[in-house]
Amino acid sequence: MLKIIDKIKKEHVFEGLESKDKDSLFKALSEKIASVSSLSTDSIFDALKKREDEYTTNIGNGVAVPHGRIQGYGKTDIFVGFLKNEINYDSDSDEKSPVKLVFAILSDLENPQDYLLNLSQIFFLVNQKEILDKIIATKNFEELETVLESFKKLDEKFEAEKQIKFLIELERAEIQIKAYELYSSTHSQQKSDLVLEEYKKYKDTILSKIDVAVLENYKRIKENKGEALAKIENYKCSACNVAIPKMTVNEVRRQNQIIMCFHCGRILFTTD
């Protein structure tokens, strides 16, 4: 189950944020957060800006996830900001730059695992296009809550452990299909054609078992990244080689939910 849904409070949802660029957005967001927390506007802005200077938190689909860690904060909070007007989030003006919705995360400096886990869950949430479109269309907290609750019910319908196994089998089937298609293009052998058909049937069988939202997420990641799954090896993501916190690894091992790499956005799995 996605725990982030239960963390979004009414007072943490901000509507009609006015900004013309990333800095003015961070200032507006910091002021709003400061008004409902014990933090100062400057401390929030500095934390968000410090992280942003490392690498953009724009994750595409019109969504950014600015986040920061503050000494002594003692918890992890999620804030949702709806922009009054879409802004060009990144100065290089690439295709994923426009942003109209932000999920901001603030956490304690000494507890990076919790905020990374929340980041991973937000990645999964915003990659569900149908749900994301509904979130962007909401006008107030009550409407947002309704959409998130519907997603929560969808999330509870499938067993993450089985879904991950199906995705792994799907990738294996796709690899075999490509191999036999390549072989068939250079060799005229009836046997290889029969094997190819068997793999295609097997792939169709697997597809019928995968949850629609999970499959949509898988396809979108695969289209953007080439590979949608990443194995955790020695506490690192095998795709981007970024270290995965122990808490996140344990969550992946428990297989109660689908966890995505907070850095590259691929679906994580383990074999131990």
Automatic annotation (TrEMBL):
- Pfam families assigned: PTS_EIIA_2, Zn_ribbon_9
Citing just one GO molecular function, the answer is: protein kinase activator activity
Q: Which residues form a coiled coil?
A: none
Q: Which SUPFAM superfamilies match?
A: Phoshotransferase/anion transport protein
Keywords attached to this entry? Transferase
Record's Gene3D superfamilies?
Answer: Mannitol-specific EII, Chain A
Please state every residue range assigned to the domain named PTS EIIA type-2: 6-151
Matching CDD domains: PTS_IIA_fru
Q: What is this protein called?
A: Phosphotransferase system mannitol/fructose-specific IIA domain protein
